[in-house]
Amino acid sequence: MDPQTAATLLPLLGWALHGSVLTRRLASARRDPLTGLHTRAGWTARAEHCIRRHPRAAVLLVDLDHFKTLNDTHGHAAGDAALIATAHRLSSWCGRHGTAGRLGGDEFVAAIRDLDAVDLDALTTALHQPTNYDGTALPLAASVGACPVAELPVPALTDALAAADAAMYAAKGRSRRGSRPAR
């Protein structure tokens, strides 16, 4: 290769390498390193897209019950196992019908295309199954709040999250085990 061609290609090669490194960093920043779910930023973009395209979309908020007790009793590695199990169950439940994310701590979110097309009780049941950690069955429980976006005056993600949060706290107060759509 002649020096002039090399001088032209070398900076282009450097920019291509730099671009791929930045792309990988951006993708990893949008995924929670523990659970593999979307982080708030990654999930928000997908949820807003879901709300715009699907008039029967719903937003769910999931909060693990008694998570601090689980951590204090069994240790943080057991808590991590509970978070991973919850993430897997929520993601599996969403399947191709939606997208799941982790807001942080023991708080998860999902946006689904049509609340009537999925079984919310099946999600609650799945989230209440114990998970195995180091030969011990860890008890899991979660409260789920759902907001059908069509019931909002304006279909906005922030309002849907607020309504799902209120429904989740109502479910938490009712039995500390359950789900409740916002109505």
Automatic annotation (TrEMBL):
Give the UniProt keywords, A-Z.
Answer: Nucleotidyltransferase, Transferase
Judging by the UniProt lineage, the source's domain of life is: Bacteria
Q: What is its EC number?
A: 2.7.7.65
Sequence ranges assigned to domain GGDEF in this UniProt record: 55-183
Mind listing the GO molecular function terms for this protein? diguanylate cyclase activity
Which InterPro entries does the annotation name? DGC-Regulatory_Protein (IPR052163), GGDEF_dom (IPR000160), Nucleotide_cyclase (IPR029787), Rev_trsase/Diguanyl_cyclase (IPR043128)
**Mind telling me which PANTHER family this protein's record contains?**
DIGUANYLATE CYCLASE DGCT-RELATED, GGDEF DOMAIN-CONTAINING PROTEIN
Q: What is this protein called?
A: GGDEF domain-containing protein
